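Note to self: the last two entries modelled the partners one at a time, which told us nothing about the interface. This time every component goes in together.
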Amino acid sequence: MENETKRTTIYDLAKLADASPSAVSSVLNGTWEKRRISKKLADRVMRLAEEQGYAVNVQASLLRRERSDIVGMIVPKYANRYFGDIAEQFEAMARARGLFPVVTCTQRDPDLEFEAAKELISYQAECLISTGATDPDRISAFCDASGVQSINLDLPGKTAPSVISDNYSAARDLTDLILDRCERDLGWSGPLRFVGGRLTDHNTAARLEGFLDAQRERTISVPDTYVMATGYSAQKSANALAAFKPDGPTGLFVNSTISLEGVVKWHSELASGADQVRYGCFDWDPFGSFLPGNVGMVEQDVTSMLIKAFELIGKPTSLNEPILIPCKLRIF
Amino acid sequence: MENETKRTTIYDLAKLADASPSAVSSVLNGTWEKRRISKKLADRVMRLAEEQGYAVNVQASLLRRERSDIVGMIVPKYANRYFGDIAEQFEAMARARGLFPVVTCTQRDPDLEFEAAKELISYQAECLISTGATDPDRISAFCDASGVQSINLDLPGKTAPSVISDNYSAARDLTDLILDRCERDLGWSGPLRFVGGRLTDHNTAARLEGFLDAQRERTISVPDTYVMATGYSAQKSANALAAFKPDGPTGLFVNSTISLEGVVKWHSELASGADQVRYGCFDWDPFGSFLPGNVGMVEQDVTSMLIKAFELIGKPTSLNEPILIPCKLRIF
DNA sequence: ATTACTTGCACAATCGATTGAGCAAGGTTG
DNA sequence: CAACCTTGCTCAATCGATTGTGCAAGTAAT
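The predicted structure of the combined assembly is written out below.
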């Protein structure tokens, strides 16, 4: 990890081109015409830069500039369709807007979230998007102190603008779909069980509300024990269901594709009655429609969420309610 | 995106603490004991830094330091189990080693790959890992010119050390598995079809070789038209298969989970004979075992690959053959 | 009471690029 | 030919943190 070969600087190029460092700098950053550098010198410098494998030192450059054009993002995971898409599209959209994206993955660890946020601010990010953060307000507070804009995505915070899915409506729709299919396929009408997530997390709470309201409307009452929001991992949802051996028709509302992994495992290992189970999942996966018993999935509208988030960048912080983005219900 | 509130610097803290900037600096970067700063002053500075929401300016800090401890990585995608895992584990392992990971996603676009690589070098990355890069040697050449170490992951290059999966062996094993299942379930013995990927890409070529050798060993000869390596997207593999209406038993070797999306779409839309199809896929997905007809998947050993890659960091570049990491065959 | 350490800091150069200001050479105008 | 403008650069300060060097005040030793 040592560089025997020191990196080429504008001073090296200046010597080679027999020009001043400032001339070289203006050639390389595109301001040479404004600074009345001759095309001849500009060409010479550009050729030398190419030859020498010159790459600007961002550290030095940003130190002097007033703007960094860096936008930071933290996400809980990459290896997940939803968050992976968010990170990917965020990078693409930032580049398309002439900004420099820096994304980092924080594994749903509150401390790592905070450390990573500080790190991004250290890199002079001008705006930080906290995606699915456990404690977004702590991050926003630090951003405020540093004069950095902060925006919440996926999970809302109280002290910075938030762009999130319309979890309640989508959960109602998904619940209705599952109930309809249970009725149609199994001649059974609930109540459904709710699997996965954490009740302390805003999205799970909103989804649970939609889940309950949709059933209340049909005068179905859901026993407390039917709500199994014991965490996000596949293992946790599998554990929550382990003891459950349905002796008749059953329906499940699964709170994420991660929990879904546990659910399908449980489902596939049922000794009997597997065909009497119907479920739907909040979050979409390309292979979801092939899972037996799966009647539909909610696809969150990542593109619209990010467009809204980018609209907020640079705007004065108006702290209204979270901006709700409608989801798409994918029916199988 | 403007900071009305200028960021706090060590000079601000120095004034507040009634100390010199150099004392403040050494307190904040942990060298204060070595520099014989009193604990009293150190505590005062730390408290002020906390209060003021101080975050070091990485730009200024790195400009002066000789080492950045930054390791860069480019990956084609995040929203994919394999690459998502790579990015996630890379970040975690880098942090565990006291390094600063910076990852960026390049969408399999050769120009973006190169631009992103330059960008990471501009950030003073001391080592750059090119994952699944279309033209890794171009990137390595630039790294060499800049005195930056480069390492290839997933796809090999000729001018930098490479850590890749043992594609050939895993493809042989997977082919054997598919053939065995075709024999057992359908009483049919090939030849199989190969779907997805690009032949110009090293991994596809190695997998095809394993695919062909496994069949050659059983004296099965594969017609050229059975090799449908027309690209990576789901759409492309679906298109390649569109015209194929099997009139008897069939087996497919699917070259990636992305191609698999196209294959399952084709399979699910078959008018008849869907139960006469068996396939296996190179790359693993948690829902893969629930896809009808899927007999097994190859899981690449991301952790081992990254461990090897990290072992190479800082080592003098020894240019041997690519380091091959065995895969795990997941049998359904 | 002098010399010799130790403690606890401050000074100032430095990293590489940016940018306002300035200056010399050549050309144009009246 | 003097006054003025244009062209094509160079100079030097600056961004914020790091770090080798130095120095004053206090303490210990002789």
